[in-house]
UniProtKB/TrEMBL annotation, chain A:
It is found in: Nucleus. This is Uncharacterized protein. The keyword Repeat applies. GO terms for cellular component: nuclear pore outer ring. The keyword Protein biosynthesis does not apply.
From TrEMBL, chain B:
Component of the nuclear pore complex (NPC). Keywords: Membrane, mRNA transport, Nuclear pore complex, Nucleus, Protein transport, Translocation, Transport. This is Nuclear pore complex protein Nup85. Functions as a component of the nuclear pore complex (NPC). PANTHER family: FROUNT PROTEIN-RELATED, NUCLEAR PORE COMPLEX PROTEIN NUP85. The keyword Iron does not apply. Belongs to the nucleoporin Nup85 family. It is found in: Nucleus, Nuclear pore complex. One of its GO terms (molecular function) is structural constituent of nuclear pore.
Length: 367, 702
């Protein structure tokens, strides 16, 4: 089925769009749990992976669709599979020059992997390989390592699992199990052996899976005085592994540069690091996704001492770009939450988002 | 709408209807409402019985009650897409009311008109409205009907300018919605759709009686462009004919030209309409007279005698009589009374302004053309035309779902002060609610019972001064507590936006208890902290302590696990009962552990003394008043024995020993009969001995 996008109609009262940005809304027949760009076969064959929840019959679907841009964007389903459980996280990664991985984690602690040829015409992707539950209930974060293709997963149960995958086989190793005493909300690789986790109380932990025992470094001590709150999402800069950004409750976006700082830089949030209220914050509620934005990289931010710009999306419907020392760029404000976002790794101008109102949002920035 | 529950079925929540069991040892079946119109049946396995492999495990099944509809997603799309316009209107209304105490400004209707147009566009977007296209025609028709009523409400109730251009407004409306006027009798639209394919294959359509009757019908409701187009398909325009049809052709052309010259009173000239536009009424009436004279002249012309084709002559004469407003011909040309009404305002009463005369005209038309069978819409259409707000409301409730009723109330009160007070007046029979708020409550309750729309309820409830706020709070607290962080964030965000701090705090506490119960201790503590639930935090801290004290001293792994948890509690919580204790206890245990480690690894004496003194320092912190509960005192003192008995150096000073002795003394006096603490046991004697011996050593050293 072909679903065409309707250009976003905005009344006179709507927030004016920043010049040079075009926005389309693509309605879906269900709730978008996650959306990711797929590694493309060629520049002309863009495609996306979507995790959908159909509230009518309570089914969950993983869908691969081609994304075309002729007279406005439209998506066409290539393949879709019913998932046994609702997806909580979705990630995609090139597997080899010819193949891609789609990994999804579920609310029931299971994972599914698809290793497919890059999606072009006439490619029929194979069905997903499903794992048994490796976490006790929800998996809150997974990340795929770009060199080793290892998948690291964390959950509310306080486990950190390493999953290695070959074409048809999965093997799991449990690295940490703290029996639910602390929970992790997200995880991100920083090198083939090191990764960062985050969760409760705006704390970060750096780990090395070759070393047993506790984390290599912990950030708790840096954020004394913050009180309660959660981190929902981490991103580590792809080329500068010492730079890391997190987003969480109360509009908080924090960036760390491991080399310099005793304290993180706060990019956004309704109160500062000492708990004092901040008068103007672009986002006031939960930040659902943070991603380093290579598109917004200006001359000054390419300096290695500065934290590069970050794109965020939030519960209160804001899609924007934050950079330390610069005014925030609010790309658009939606009437509903923006739950997920992904920047096209092949074409940084293109951003795809999942909206609470059962739609995808496609944003094109003019280069 | 199918798929939307009847109002008595839609109450949201997990309220259990009945838990039924035939006998306590056997299985239980629970029946409760799930989300939407789902019924949840839970089969609970008996607890006492051993779960054998053959027994059926506990299971939950959800059954959908009522018709299974594939259009819920389309309906949800309407709910989503209409929300921004409604929210914007409410914002502006509040702004306007803040600015002036006397109520809404006189140009308020213009704001409502904008709102009405946005909603009308949303109602029209049925093609690409959702992933699943509205493919069933019945569903399409329903949506079009909804839009038809919406647009008519806009003409009558909202658009103040519409009354000046009423004829054109009604003609336009009929053109868009003629096809949904009736589902029992054919309309002009259906007549023409039969004719259309026939015309393509016919050279001489004038021989067909349907051709002329369809033309008459189309003309009677003002579809001039269609009539002119079809007239030019008349057989006399064909070149290769044996008969001499020049006069006949001249007559056809004359009628076509007259029709295309019809004067029309319009706000602005539209490019696609046939006719001559006048914007000024006196000019229009002059032109109208002139045009009517031309028609009369043509009717009495001698050329008719020369017209040999009888069908053409009759057909054309009939068209001319319609233009002249011959009531009998209009009655026979139209099929529905609404069509007859439009034909009357077009040709019989072209100077009708405002809606005063419209209602009586409509009633007359209905008598002339009584609806076949039971036409459900008749009452509603009449009520709208007559601006009879009460009947409009009743009929809309009968025919449409709460979405329509809630959203259209704004139209009714746009410029009609009477309707406004009728809708906002507080009514005793509704417990002080106004009709407006009542309908919003109903709609909000339906929204609240679906997993994807409950979060929209505040838009419809927040403005309600009476029960809206209460219902909103109930809806928020009824959300099932789960690991879905999106749901909890949504609840808290709504609380933040609408200043429901108490609800937010309660919700956070519920989350805390949920996670704690499920063994997610850190999450539980975090949420309890957010909810500032100090009594439960103290309980949690006590439980954590029991955990720690049960672990053997050497089990550093266990302590490390808890370490992160205690860190999580943060220094700002140190002042609170068990938490303060736990912090200090953790420090004491840590110091004691390194002291013990030192003993085992025989490190240098100095270091050993330093470690021991640190441990004592932390122990003394724990002994301060109000930090340590009595039941934890004994294990602590037992731990201290090792420090007291350290042979190399006196670690505990005489003053400190005195404090410890005092605590032990108090403990034994106040808890003499406590069997749990077991104060008579050997261990107490051991502690006493150690304390006494140390006191001696300490005094000597001093």
């Amino acid at each position: 089925m072909m679903v065409e996008a309707s250009p976003l109609l905005r009344g006179t009262e709507g927030v004016p769009l920043t010049a040079g940005v075009e926005v389309w809304r693509i309605p879906q027949g269900g709730y978008v749990d996650a959306v990711r760009w797929m590694p493309p076969a060629t520049a002309w064959h863009q495609s996306i992976a979507t995790a959908l929840w159909d509230p009518d019959d309570g089914t969950f679907k993983l869908q691969l669709s081609s994304f075309s841009f002729e007279e406005g964007p439209s998506i066409q389903e290539i393949a879709s599979w019913e998932l046994p459980e609702r997806a909580s996280v979705l990630k995609t990664l090139p597997f080899s020059s010819q193949q891609a991985i789609v990994a999804s984690a579920s609310f029931a602690g299971t994972m599914s992997f698809i290793i497919t040829k890059l999606l072009g015409p006439d490619v029929v992707p194979p069905p997903p390989i499903l794992s048994s539950p490796i976490h006790d209930r929800i998996i809150t974060g997974i990340d795929l390592q770009s060199d080793t293709h290892d998948c690291i997963s964390v959950g509310e149960d306080g486990k950190i699992n390493l999953t290695q995958l070959t074409e048809s086989h999965l093997s799991h190793t449990c690295l940490i199990d703290n029996h639910g005493i602390t929970s992790f909300m997200d995880v991100c690789w920083s090198s083939p052996a090191e990764f960062v986790t985050a969760g409760l109380g705006f704390s970060l932990q750096w780990w090395d899976h070759r070393r047993s025992g506790g984390p290599v470094q912990v950030s708790n001590k840096w954020t004394h005085g913050r009180g309660g709150g959660f981190i929902h999402m981490i991103d580590v800069h792809p080329s500068r592994k010492h730079v890391c950004v997190v987003g969480g409750s109360n509009g908080v976006v924090l960036a760390w540069d491991l080399r310099w700082q005793k304290e993180p830089i706060q990019l956004c949030g309704i109160s500062d690091l000492r708990g004092q209220p901040v008068t103007e914050s672009m986002v006031e509620s939960d930040v659902w996704e943070v991603k380093f934005d290579p598109f917004s990289l200006s001359g000054s931010s390419s300096m290695s001492s500065k934290v590069p710009p970050v794109m965020i999306c939030s519960e209160d419907g804001i899609l924007g770009v934050l950079e330390a020392g610069e005014a925030p760029w609010e790309i658009l404000a939606e009437p509903c939450a923006i739950n997920t976002l992904d920047i096209n790794p092949e074409n940084f101008t293109d951003v795809i988002c999942g909206l609470e109102f059962e739609s995808l949002l496609y944003v094109k920035r003019s280069s | 709408m199918p798929g939307w529950p009847d109002s008595d079925m839609s109450f949201a929540g997990e309220k259990s209807i009945k838990a039924w069991s035939s006998d306590s040892a056997s299985a239980k079946v629970c029946i409760s409402w799930g989300t939407g119109n789902k019924l949840r049946l839970s089969y609970l396995h008996p607890r006492t019985q051993e779960i054998s492999s053959t027994a059926t495990p506990s299971k939950v099944v959800e059954v959908k009650v009522g018709s299974v509809s594939s259009h819920e997603s389309a309906m949800r799309r309407l709910v989503y897409d209409s929300l921004p316009a409604f929210a914007l209107l409410q914002n502006r209304k509040q702004q306007a009311l803040r600015q002036s105490q006397r109520g809404l400004p006189s140009d308020w209707w213009e704001t409502v008109l904008q709102y009405s147009r946005s909603i009308s566009v949303v109602l029209g977007a049925n093609k690409s409205s959702s992933g699943s296209v509205l493919n069933e025609t019945s569903e399409m028709e329903k949506r079009t009907l909804l839009r038809a009523i919406w647009d008519l409400l806009e003409i009558v109730y909202v658009d103040k300018h519409a009354s000046s251009w009423l004829t054109e407004q009604l003609t336009d409306w009929l053109e868009r919605y003629d096809q949904v006027l009736s589902n029992v009798e054919p309309t002009v639209n259906s007549k023409l759709s039969v004719l259309k394919p026939k015309l393509i294959n016919t050279r001489f359509p004038e021989d067909d009686e349907d051709y002329w009757s369809s033309l008459a019908s189309a003309l009677s409701i003002g579809w001039l462009d269609v009539v002119v187009k079809y007239l030019r398909m008349h057989g006399s325009y064909q070149h290769d004919q044996i008969d001499n049809r020049q006069t006949e052709n001249g007559l056809v052309e004359a009628v076509a030209v007259l029709i295309s010259k019809m004067p029309r009173l319009q706000q602005s000239s539209k490019t696609d309409t046939v006719g001559v536009t006048y914007t000024f009424k006196p000019e229009f009436s002059k032109a109208w007279e002139r045009w009517r004279n031309q028609i009369s002249k043509l009717v009495t012309s001698v050329f008719w005698l020369e017209c040999t084709h009888e069908g053409t002559a009759n057909g054309l004469k009939q068209l001319l009589s319609i233009l002249l407003g011959d009531t009998n011909i209009l009655i026979s040309a139209t099929t529905h009374w609404m069509e007859l009404l439009v034909s009357h305002v077009l040709f019989v009463k072209p100077f009708l302004m405002g809606s005063e005369g419209l209602l009586s005209l409509a009633r007359k038309c209905m008598q002339l053309k009584p609806p076949i069978g039971i036409d459900q819409l008749t009452e509603l259409l009449l009520a709208i035309i007559g601006e009879n707000t009460e009947v409009v409301l009743v009929e809309c409730r009968k025919h449409f779902d709460p979405w329509m009723v809630t959203h259209m109330l704004e139209l009714l009160s746009a410029k009609n002060g009477q309707a406004q007070s009728f809708l906002t007046e507080e009514r005793d029979e509704f417990d002080g609610l106004s009709l407006e708020e009542f309908h919003r409550l109903v709609y909000a309750q339906i929204l609240s019972s679906y997993p994807c729309t409950w979060q929209l309820t505040p838009f419809y409830l927040a403005s309600g001064t009476h029960q809206g706020q209460g219902l909103l709070e109930a809806i928020l607290l009824m959300r099932p507590v789960s690991s879905d962080s999106k749901v909890s964030a949504k609840v808290l965000d709504i609380c933040r936006m609408y200043d429901l701090h108490a609800v937010a705090e309660r919700y956070k506490r519920m989350m805390g208890v949920y996670y704690w119960k499920h063994g997610r201790k850190g999450l539980g503590i975090s949420w309890l902290q957010c909810g500032r639930d100090y009594s439960r935090l103290t309980y949690a801290a006590n439980e954590l302590f029991t955990d720690v004290s049960q672990a053997s001293v050497g089990d550093s792994g266990r302590l490390q696990e808890l370490d992160s948890l205690i860190d999580l509690l943060g220094p700002q919580f140190e002042g609170f009962g068990g938490l303060a204790f736990l912090h200090r206890f953790r420090d004491f245990k840590g110091a004691l552990f390194s002291f013990q480690e030192g003993l085992a690894n025989s490190i240098s004496f100095d270091k050993q003394v330093v470690a021991g003194k640190t441990a004592v320092k932390h122990l003394m912190q724990l002994m301060k008043d109000g930090i340590t509960a009595d039941k934890f005192l004994l294990p602590l003192l037992q731990d201290a024995v090792e420090l007291l008995n350290f042979s190399g150096e006196v670690l505990v000073s005489s003053a400190e020993t005195n404090i410890l002795l005092l605590r032990l003394q108090n403990l034994t006096i106040t808890n003499k009969h406590d069997t749990v603490l077991d104060l008579s046991s050997e261990s107490v004697a051991k502690i006493r001995l150690a304390l006494g011996r140390n006191l001696g050593r300490a005094i000597l050293k001093d």
